[in-house]
Amino acid sequence: MPRGSEELINARKEEIVQACAALYETMSFKDITIKEIGAATSFTRTSIYNYFHTKEEIFLALFQQEYEKWIADLDELTAKYETLTDDELAQELACSLEKRILLLKLLSMNLYDMEENSRIERLADFKEAYGNSIRAMTRLLEKFRPQMTRTDQQQFLYTFFPFMYGVYPYTVVTDKQRVAMKKAGTDFVYLSVYEMIYAGTKRLLAGSQS
After folding, report:
1. The pLDDT of residue 43 is above 90
2. What's the pTM value of the predicted model, to 2 decimals?
3. Domains, the chain, ranges and CATH?
4. DSSP reduced 3-state for 119
């Protein structure tokens, strides 16, 4: 662990993570390197290794942050209302993820490689955030859908969370992909993040009551 106050250490970690996030807006995961991230920070590239051993650990920390932001959104939603119809709840969940495009983008990546190239301590931190997101969604269901059994809740959670993995690829399509699909004669209906999450969530909620 590098020397310095906890405040300084956390500030440097945050700077590294935010440098990675900025690069990820215009570069692909495979093209981003520790060198690129180091060039975007205020300290030397070698100093990064005091905080993160691989670029995958940096991305995992960014991923963890995005889950934590979404958890805060879910808890705020749970506290804000007393009741919500299926339509209203689907709308609110769609809005919560419409703000989290980076989370959806990270979900569409190959998590196996990211996790394999991270230390167990960093992976455990990430898994804690992931687990907390499931608990936050469970709290939401317990409040707004108290009629759901434990089995109903689990079926909702383990359909909704895998569903999130596919949202980004289906809603963010590059020009190259459009050209290829047109050339292949493959039809494509554009849906926004909001539209896809709303429709999927409303269908899940309706199914849980059947």
Report:
1. no
2. 0.92
3. 1-51 (1.10.10), 56-207 (1.10.357.10)
4. coil
